[in-house]
Amino acid sequence: MRLLLLVMVTGLLAHFSRAADTAPVKKSDVFEFTGRTEAAALVEIRPRVTGYLTKLVAKEGAAVKKGDLLAEIDPRPFQIEVDAAQARLAQSEAHFRLTVTESDRVRKLFDSRAVAAEEMERMAARATVARAAFDLAKVELTRAQLTLSATKLTSPIDGRLGRFQLSEGNLVVADGGPSIVTVIGTDPVFGFFDVDERTLLRLRRAGLAEAGKLTVSVGLADEDGYPHQTRLEFIDPRVDPATATVRFRTTLPNPKGLFVPGMFIRVRIVANADGTAAPARQP
């Protein structure tokens, strides 16, 4: 009898232990975490041509727009290539037009039986070769112009400029060496926070651990409460075995530049009275 009672008690304790480990989301449950902000976009500006860095146009730390000029590489060697390509194009165009004229003349002579068919075919072949050379010259000019345009380094995104890694006068190498500067996107920024396995399981069992289903409230170190409302947009599909946590991500609109990449944030997710998490609000 005692043995039976002991087995029953042990079973009940095990049952309650398992239930406590993964307790479902209850009314007014509050989940709080800490995290960090990261840039939603970060671009390293690297040279696409080899040459001397002649001018740093933008100021370090300044706000820049997409297309703003940041720095310049000496364009003179590349301008020479463009000029040479234009001259070759003009030459090949003149030669092509001449061969077309000659080919037309020979065709008329052939029609009047003044020349043999072999002569007409030879002139037609010359015109074909001249046309190919003309087309190639156009491609070479386009390539030279594209290379010249690469001497002007512009920002590919809106953001804020980092620190220049090189000063004027340095030789930069295409597709090699350090980046010249980094442009950091500041609006929006990402907010990352890590959720422990137990909380993740509770949210999953409630059907809430999905992108778009959770409202995320965020507060900064000097703020009371969690005044910034956003929504969960990404959950890493893997658990970090070193920390037994899963990384969540949200996007924070940042038109005033209040959030800075790398900044500490406080995060809160609140369950509604009906036991479901607060629905995601549209930004």
Domain count: 3
Biggest sheet record: 6 strands, antiparallel, barrel
Query: Which percent bin holds the helix content?
Result: 25-40%
Query: Helix and strand succession?
Result: HEEEEEHHEEEEEHEEEE
Instruction: Fill in the CATH topology of the largest domain.
Output: Elongation Factor Tu (Ef-tu), domain 3
pLDDT averaged residue by residue = 82
Taking the alpha carbons of the first and last residues, their distance comes to: 64 Å
**CATH architecture annotation of the largest domain:** Beta Barrel
Radius of gyration: 34 Å
Q: Shape from CA axes?
A: elongated
Organism: Fimbriiglobus ruber
Signal peptide: 1-19
Keywords: Signal
Protein name: RND efflux system, membrane fusion protein CmeA
Secondary-structure topology with pairs:
Elements: H1 2-21, E1 30-39, E2 42-45, E3 51-56, E4 63-64, E5 69-73, H2 76-111, H3 117-149, E6 152-154, E7 159-161, E8 171-172, E9 181-184, E10 189-196, H4 197-205, E11 215-220, E12 228-235, E13 245-252, E14 264-270
Helix pairs in contact: 2-3
Protein name: RND efflux system, membrane fusion protein CmeA
Keywords: Signal
Domain Multidrug resistance protein MdtA-like barrel-sandwich hybrid: 43-183
Give an overview of the whole structure.
- The protein is built from 4 helices and 14 strands.
- The protein folds into 3 domains: 23-40 and 186-270, Beta Barrel (Elongation Factor Tu (Ef-tu), domain 3); 41-74 and 151-184, OB fold (Dihydrolipoamide Acetyltransferase, E2P); 75-150, Helix Hairpins (Orthogonal Bundle), CATH 1.10.287.
- Mean pLDDT is 82; it is low at 1-10, 12-22, 273-277 and 279-283.
- A hairpin with a 7-residue loop joins β11 (215-220) and β12 (228-235).
- The strands form 3 sheets. The protein has a 6-stranded antiparallel β-barrel. A 4-stranded antiparallel beta sheet has the order 2-9-7-4, with no helix packed on it. Strands 6-5-3-8 form a 4-stranded antiparallel beta sheet, with no helix packed on it.
- The chain is elongated and about 100 Å long.
- With 283 residues, the protein is an alpha+beta fold.
- α2 runs antiparallel to α3.
